[in-house]
Amino acid sequence: MALSGAIAMIAVGDIGVCGARGDEATARIVDSLLIVDSVADVQRVVITIGDNAYRSGGVGPMNAFTRCFAPSWGTPRIMSVIRPSPGNHDYDSGTATPYFDYFGARAGPPGKGYYSFDVGDWHLISLNSELYFGRGSPAEAKAQEDWLRRDLSGNRKRCTLAYFHRPRFSSGSHRGTPEMQTLWSILYDADADLILNGHEHDYERFLPQTPAGAVDSARGIPQIVAGTGGAALRGIRSQLAPNSVIQIHGHYGVLKLALGAGEYTHAFLDTEGRVWDAGSGKCH
Predict the structure, then answer these.
(1) The pTM of the whole model exceeds 0.90
(2) CATH number of the domain that 268 lies in?
(3) 111, 123, 169, 178: which could join 157 in a potential S-S bond, CB 3.0 to 4.6 Å?
């Protein structure tokens, strides 16, 4: 379903690995989609959902971005519209300095890893899940939460989308991240409409839920995991997490969304040209 005047968004996490081909394949998808949208004069945005670059193939964390991310995803066309978020591997140097140095102003205020911006009828929020895992202090995590409440209270857009690396819910190897419940609660209380995550090297979509994991068709937030940008793929556990409606593993690809006036469409595009999980949703 085409949405008139929609913003074209591409989202994926877990991307740049030296010596691998998955990131090169997903970059080709992104580049081709951006060309099509540019010709059609559609506003575009590319978001990354953490773990942008891995130390790999003898490449250390300080130059992983220039040597493992830039050759595939660092094209001028992609970089002109990219808005990243950090993941645990973006902190492989002990800090996220290489991440902030590489992306510069595109990553928001230096050292924080969270920021927001508007596109069309949508308010987009990039958050830093790593502040809860030794990458930051409890004071820095609380500062993010306080900032998020202020940001949401000042939001005048009809629809809200948040993205950060670690998913609250997952059927993958990490089994979800309870530490994300506070961020979820703040977003839920503000009637946010969609949450995107990476970290799990698979694709998975959940029904609209409360922060505690109860189905809520009125105010619940759908969560989509798309950690299929180039890092080694992983499987799905045989016992699925509650409310998981689709799971795709063993395929590199990207999540494509069209953000319209009060609604959106979504689909997973794999690197073999197949389209999975095409659907739509409405804002609260």
Answers:
(1) yes
(2) 3.60.21.10
(3) 123
Q: Is residue 283 within 8 Å of 60, Cβ to Cβ?
A: no
| Amino acid making up residue 64 | A
Interatomic CA distance for residues 256 and 44, integer angstroms:
11
Only one residue has tokens 């095409």, namely 278
Of 178, 177, 237, the C-alpha closest to 202 is: 237
Torsion of CA 283, 269, 173, 133, to 10 degrees: -60
Mind listing the pLDDT tens digit for each residue in 137-146? 899 999 999 9
On whether residue 171 sits in a domain, the answer given is yes
- With respect to residue 2, please indicate whether it lies within any of the assigned structural domains: no
Q: End-to-end alpha-carbon separation of the chain, Å? A: 19
Instruction: Say if residues 250 and 233 touch (Cβ distance below 8 Å).
Output: yes
The candidate with the shortest Cα–Cα distance to 136, out of 161, 115, 111, is 111
Compute CA distances 223 → 204, 206, 276, whole Å.
Answer: 8, 5, 16
The span from the CA of 66 to the CA of 49, in Å, is 18
